[in-house]
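We were asked to recover a plausible sequence for a given structure. The inputs and outputs are reproduced exactly as logged, with field labels preserved.

PROBLEM: sequence recovery
POSITIONS: 511
GIVEN STRUCTURE:
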């Protein structure tokens, strides 16, 4: 911990959010920043998730930065390998390598109320930063349930986001735990290889066909030669999804037709009535994220696959036991059980102005101002913060809106001049979140009859944005200083010998 570096901005994480923040800072003329990344390369969730079949369920031309279009996407829905390569390309194109601090896991971030700076301890040194932009993302820390007997299981165990590529699944008896977005890609990818696959399903997902295809050479040539055609394609994909939002947020009953199509999709692939019943959800479509796959149901119909319509209860030796009593001998257990979304571990490492961690502040539920700043944590921002998630569109759209807010935040600090910080007012944070939760009450995510990872331990939806992406962009176009207190640090007179000089702090109220 002997190394120390002082910067204007410290960005935490190098996925879409972190790299996007780095690009935007450079475009704003700010070059005194670092990107702290705990891994040995960039990519975020698209680096960590390398399981067989891993791909995006958002069209490629919409799942990319507007300022870094890619005319050479190979498929309409790109796989993990191509998305990760795109992020490496962005890193090089915008000259971000000198700012990267790889293998620097953040251990602690503490606000210095006197100096109005963040003190950051990492696995390879310490930093001080005027501003912290946390872009660790909600899908970064895998969640494995506490299953009795798991520690004594003699076989192989891993999470989908920590895939063990050295373990050969050929001929093995495999238990797949969970039926989320990762599982529906893993199951068809490994089914032809494994000896026996048992899928443990607590709640069946709604799955629609994945309309994926190769993008032709002519299309790619057109987008390279006439870039506006790629922009138009992106705009069309965006517009279609904007028109769908009201059904999710205001009129869930309108999703009935989509639900009928999803039931028809099950019926086409699953001829066994008993299996079809297991795979048909009882909640309104859209309550959980609608998943896309044209191979999931056909894989489940194969003779070497069993579906146990129950969650995992315990493990006895190499026998996994479901809550309904079903016992299955397996050689390997793969958890597709999601991530710590509403209880992000990074929150335990952020200590604010009052000496409390962000986790303590959010113990009753995550809350932020415009998905970006939290009361008690001056000059700290998050990308993909509370209530910025989407149920039907591309998160890149939300990230870019938050980058707009970050850019204006930095401009405001520049205009204020001197050593200054912006502290979100608790009243502003409270007002924003009351409005969000009020709007959330009639959304399909709250009234659709499911228990999803969108909800926290108290049953509050603290993850999803209950509106359109264009509306969120308007709400985050610029910082409203009336929602912040301005903190200023003023050095005291020279301290006597042997005494340290400390900065005094005063608060300006902007009206």
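RECOVERED SEQUENCE:
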């Amino acid at each position: 911990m002997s190394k120390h570096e002082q910067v204007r901005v410290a960005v935490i994480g190098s996925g879409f959010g972190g790299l996007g923040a780095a690009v935007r800072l450079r475009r704003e003329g700010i070059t005194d920043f670092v990107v702290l990344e705990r891994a040995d390369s960039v990519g975020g969730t698209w680096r960590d998730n390398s399981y067989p079949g891993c791909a995006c369920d958002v069209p490629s031309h919409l799942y990319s930065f507007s300022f870094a279009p890619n005319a050479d996407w190979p498929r309409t829905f790109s796989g993990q390998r191509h998305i990760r390569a795109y992020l490496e390309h962005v890193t090089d194109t915008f000259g971000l390598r000198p700012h990267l601090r790889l293998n620097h896991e953040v251990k602690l971030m503490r606000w210095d109320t006197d100096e109005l700076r963040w003190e950051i301890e990492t696995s390879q040194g310490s930093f001080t930063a005027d501003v912290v932009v946390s872009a660790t993302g909600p899908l970064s820390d895998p969640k494995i349930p506490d299953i009795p007997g798991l520690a004594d299981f003699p076989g192989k165990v891993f999470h989908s986001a920590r895939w063990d590529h050295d373990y050969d699944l050929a001929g093995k008896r495999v238990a797949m735990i969970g039926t989320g977005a990762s599982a529906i890609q893993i199951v068809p990818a490994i089914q032809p290889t494994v000896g026996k696959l048992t899928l443990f399903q607590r709640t069946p997902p709604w799955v629609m066909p994945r309309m994926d295809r190769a993008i032709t050479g002519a299309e790619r040539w057109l987008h390279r030669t006439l870039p506006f055609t790629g922009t138009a394609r992106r705009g069309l994909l965006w517009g279609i999804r904007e028109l769908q939002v009201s059904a999710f947020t205001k009129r869930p009953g309108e999703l009935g037709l989509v639900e009928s199509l999803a039931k028809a999709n099950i019926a086409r692939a699953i001829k066994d009535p008993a299996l079809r019943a297991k795979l048909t959800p009882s909640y309104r479509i859209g309550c959980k994220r609608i998943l896309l796959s044209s191979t999931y149901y056909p894989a489940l119909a194969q003779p070497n696959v069993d579906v146990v319509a129950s969650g995992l209860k315990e493990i006895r030796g190499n026998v996994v036991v479901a809550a309904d009593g079903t016992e299955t001998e397996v050689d390997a257990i793969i958890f597709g059980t999601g991530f710590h979304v509403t209880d992000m571990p990074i929150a335990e490492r952020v200590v604010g102005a009052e000496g409390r961690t962000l986790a303590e502040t959010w113990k009753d539920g995550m809350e932020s101002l415009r998905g970006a700043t939290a009361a008690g944590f001056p000059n700290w921002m998050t990308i993909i913060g509370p209530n910025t998630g989407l149920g039907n569109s591309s998160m890149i759209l939300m990230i870019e809106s938050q980058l707009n807010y970050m850019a204006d935040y930095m401009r405001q600090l520049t205009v204020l001049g001197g050593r200054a910080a912006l502290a979100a007012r608790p009243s502003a944070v409270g007002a924003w979140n009351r409005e969000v939760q009020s709007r959330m009450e009639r959304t399909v995510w709250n009234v659709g009859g499911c228990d999803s990872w969108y909800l926290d331990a108290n049953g509050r939806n603290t993850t999803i944005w209950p509106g359109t992406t264009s509306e969120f962009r308007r709400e985050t176009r610029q910082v409203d200083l009336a929602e912040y207190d301005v903190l200023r640090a003023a050095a005291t007179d020279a301290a006597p010998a042997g005494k340290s000089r400390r900065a005094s702090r005063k608060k300006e109220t902007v009206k």
